[in-house]
Amino acid sequence: MNVQTEIFLADTNIFIEPFKTFYPTDFAPQYWSFLEYELKNGTIKLLDKVRAEVKAKGLKEWLVGVKGVAVIKSGDNSILENLGNILDHLQNAGLYTDNALTEWSKNEVADPWIIATAMAKDYTVVTLEQPNRNLGKGGLIKEAKVPDVCKHFDVPYIDLYTMLRRLKFTFG
Questions:
Q1: What's the confidence (pLDDT) of residue 1?
Q2: Fewer C-beta within 10 Å: the chain N or C terminus?
C-alpha cells in the first residue's frame, strides 16, 4: 500500500506574520527551527515568488540562509498554464473588480503563482488569509483571496495552525 505524504506549499504570510507578530525569532526559535527542518526535508515547499516577497530585515536573511531547500521555479509550463486559468477566472467570473485582476497579474505577486503551483504539483496551500465572506453576494470584490481561488479550482488549502498540527509541531 502506497501512502502519499501530504506536501505543503507555503504562502508568504506564514513567514511574515509570525515573524512580525506572534512568533518572533527571539520568542519562538522552535517555530523557526521546525520550519527550517520541514523546508529541508521537503514537507514544506517554497516557491521562488514567495522567497522574493520576503523582504523583512532578519527574516529575509533567515530564509536565504536555510541551506538545502529546493526552491520551486515558477516558470514550469504546467504552472504557467494554471496561472492563465486563474487569471481568466478573475477576469471572467463576474466576482472581481478589474483591480483584483490587475494586482494578481503583477509578476511579483506570489498568490496566483502559489495556487498555480499547488494545482500542478498536487500540494496543499498553507495560508493565513481568510476567505472573503462577501464573495458571490452581489458586489464585486476588489481583492482576490487565496482561499476563495483555491476553492474554485478544488485546490486544498489550510491555515498555518492546521499544518502545524498535522506535522505534530509542539513548543516542547
A1: 45
A2: N
**Residue pLDDT, tens place only, 117-126:** 999 999 999 9
Residue 28 has pLDDT above 70, yes or no: yes
E-strand spans in 91-163?
A: 124-126, 157-158
Phi first, then psi, for residue 69 (nearest 5°) are: -100, 125
Question: Residue 50's CB: how many other CB atoms inside 10 A?
Answer: 26
Q: How far is CA 153 from CA 39, 94, 149, in A?
A: 25, 16, 6
Of the candidates 73, 46, 72, 70, the one whose C-alpha atom is nearest the C-alpha of residue 60 is 46
111-121 vs 77-92: helix crossing angle, rounded to 10:
120
Burial of 93 (0-12, 13-18, 19+ CB in 10 A): middle
The Cα 107–Cα 99 span in angstroms is 15
